[in-house]
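Bench notes, afternoon.
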Amino acid sequence: MAAPHKSENKILEDLMRVAEGAFGTVAGFRNELQQGCKKQAERFKNTLDLTTNAELEVVKAMQVKILEQQDAILKSLAALEDKKPKK
């Protein structure tokens, strides 16, 4: 088996450099595309009138309190109905 010539090695080295450059360019393009998509999604999200997590937690706490109050009112009503004279 004959040893590869220096010119063949040079060609392979050049091809490897070109491939590495192309992969680097593609990776850079991918990163730019990701960042652009994230920015666009963030802009779109900001145009919507969405509830924040903090606002949602406040509403959940209010709901719990209202349900507790409703339960207390129903128990009081039941107690009053039990005390009501029977006809």
